[in-house]
Amino acid sequence: MPGEESDSISVGVLHSLSGTMAMSEIPVRDATLLAIEEINAAGGVLGKALNPIVEDGASEPATFAQKAQKLVQQDGVAAVFGGWTSASRKAMLPVFEANDALLWYPVQFEGNECSPNIFYLGAQPNQQILPALQWAFERQMTKIYLLGSDYVFPRTANLILKKHIEDRGGQVAGEDYVALGGTDFSSVINKIKAAQPKVIFNTLNGDSNVAFFKQLQAEGLTAESLPVISFSIAEQEAKAMGPALVEGHYAAWNYFQSLPGDANRDFVAAYRAAYGEDEVVDDPMEAGYVAVYLWKAAVEKAGSLEPESVRKAAWGLSFDAPEGAVRVADNQSLHKAVRVGKLLPDGQFEVVWGTDDPVEPEPYDSLAFPGKSCGWSEAGS
Prior knowledge:
Layout: E1 8-15, H1 22-41, E2 49-56, H2 61-74, E3 80-82, H3 86-98, E4 103-105, E5 118-120, H4 129-138, E6 143-149, H5 152-167, E7 171-178, H6 186-195, E8 199-203, H7 208-218, E9 228-230, H8 235-241, H9 243-246, E10 250-253, H10 262-275, H11 283-302, H12 307-314, E11 318-321, E12 324-328, E13 334-335, E14 339-343, E15 349-354
Parallel strand pairs: 1-2, 1-3, 3-4, 4-5, 6-7, 6-8, 8-9, 9-10
Antiparallel strand pairs: 10-14, 11-12, 12-13, 14-15
């Protein structure tokens, strides 16, 4: 049986512990390990302790694929928790499909994909970028500049955004991409100043954000004169960058540390007890934490570690997550609430807009990808 030894069950934890994405991914690893430690303290899974095998994807898609193959084929793990960029996920996908293994992926992404071997714990486009667009339009921010890192998620997310901006009568003021890890934004900022947008939609990833916001601030473009709404900056990035650099700007996520509720208070307290009282938590960390608990629930419902049994057992599972109630859809994404937050001087986000109820995940956008859908049923799987 995959991942199982006589007294433990091996699982993989695969994140960038080096390179441009390490700033974002190391805390997700830590939150994933916290969930594993809690589960072990409560008796494990199927009566056995979890044995996490941690690997470094090194911010390189090819390395993610190699490490995923090692975890699945050599280590025989029962599941892998990890990945951040869509490039890393797409590099790993053939490994999991070829080996009938399961990846639990914790980050928002561009949609336009569903695999029976991946559970998508982060937001679909209709649970992050499109609600953020609605929020912007409600505030007359209809002239939008699109800026992103040059890989799958930003380009596909912006393809979707452009369709919806046009459909709603807005204007794309400009569109630019910078290599992942890029730090020179001088020409981009000159274009932004010339275009005079009302808002920037930012899909930069990793430490490129530090350089961008520093250069934006140096040019006198403040949150008041030109707000930025980001889709990969959360509490961890704000702490690493220095809150003063991004204060007053916005981010769209499903989870913020500032949310009320006992489940969130317990999560924040447990993370700080494990890693330090000054630590912060964010959306991908919360999703990585939730992923382990959902996998545990699916394994125990199935009574087995066999991936196909676990996969089917996961459909319809609910969990009282720190972000609020979530439920697994049969397209292996989550029903999740959506929030827009404004960054405060202390590095926390004030929720300024949100949905009342969880939003159903829609992996394929009807405007950008008409006629496509995904999901499985008992009869058709």
